[in-house]
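User: Teach me something about this protein's shape.
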Amino acid sequence: MSKPSNHTPDIGALNYDDRIDVPVLLRDGPGGRPWKKWRTGKAQAWERPGLPDTDGWYLPTTTWREIIHAACNVGRDLTPWLDTPQMAAGELVARIAPLYAFLALHQGPTPHAYNAGRRLTSNRVLERGTEASARGAFSYRLGMTMAEWVCQRMGLGQTFNLEDSWPADVEDPAAKLKKLKGQSSPRPDLWGTHTTERRYWLIEAKGGDIGPRRQQKGWEQLQGGSSVMAPYGYDHRLILCSAGLLRKVHSENDLIVVVGHEHHPGSPAVRPQPDASADRTFRQKVRPRPKDLNNADQLGQAARSQMLVYLMLRAAAEATSPNLFQVPLSRSRTYRRRATGPLTLLEHDEETLALRQEQRDLAIGSDVTSRFTAEAGLENYLACRVPGTDVTLGLSRRLYNACEQLFIAESEMFPATRAEDQPLTARAEKRVESDMRLAGIEYRQRAEDAREIVNSQVWAAFDTAPHGWDDVFRDIGPAPRIVLTPTLSEAATSETYLAVEPRDLFTRIKK
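Assistant: First, the predicted structure itself:
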């Protein structure tokens, strides 16, 4: 496998309250159950993002914030929320809540100086109080979350659900066919683009039981996806990510991730993109742009990945939710440094911390206003706690504007087929299911045909966004309060915000 990037900053050991060690096995293709080796085998060091040099056991240290970020961002078909945007927050709850409900922490060995000495494990609710069907639903969520997490760790960009789209100009011949009884067209869950490798990744996520049968089934799904890619000649890698809580194997039940991989050579998937910020037509108009959002395709992908968060924030604003607040972060994106994934943990965002402290000193006895923070070089992100969880998510004003434009454009392309408007008969149910399938096919074709136009509209919305939030709340009421000292463990990317309250999970270590 490829070596880690030499350009990734080395920030030393992670010293955070929510540190976690996750045993990871890299190997060629599928294989058998790993048994006790995740504890008894010698684990190699994996401190920095990127693909390790060789296969084998590794013990990277991550944080709970990075795992929650993976749960919220793993690719998903967004078409249901185009028709029912008010329900998008429920999808975020469904992704986050099972992790809190069924996982706990226990102690583990520390073969490397950077290790935390604690690992995720199943709690008693999962072990003793959960029926098989509920355990299966949790296994799906766990598998998708950890697949996203380990792929981010290996340098992959945004993931997309293959039910929603395929890479570039690839068309799945089975997508337009109505499946007959007993007919099967195995496909993997996700795809993404690895810009360093310049190839596409097809990813199948498995959770729970990661024995040989499930591994083989996952590999067959990947091979089905590879057969669709083959006629196009694109370079691609197959990735089988299995997240297991190995029950009845050892007295300590660690969460482990097993990654099987296989390379299929071909033409490069990633071609050089023009840097629009260097174009003369943009020089006078565009505010400084993060390096990871420097072309229209990248920005379009980022907006799509944050659509659930945007819809949650919009719904909370319309309902004047008390959970909404503004959180100031440094306007300079150059201080966003990755730790072990796409997030910058704000313990390492020195400029944000320093500017917040200055504002706290100046704000004694007076209210903090948007103008007050803007003059200090801070930008207020709009954030909201996900209902029923201890997780807070937010967006910059620019990305919020971009998501808004993307939602408008995508909604216009999506043909509405509301199931609740149909009579409740068996025949009607079949008709609704068929109509939804055809609507999805029609929408995806329209979306692909209009992709360049929509991305340019999203780009323009991003660059022309106002600095504050007053226009969003003009017809609703006063803008949410500004919080200079959130009592949370915070993290951010160049345009997004995430915070967690880790005390419930991280103060209880299984003995």
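Now, about its shape. Confidence is low (pLDDT under 50) at residues 1-14, 272-286, 417-424. The CA atoms of residues 68 and 210 lie 22 Å apart. If you'd like, I can walk through any region in more detail.
User: That's plenty for now, thanks!
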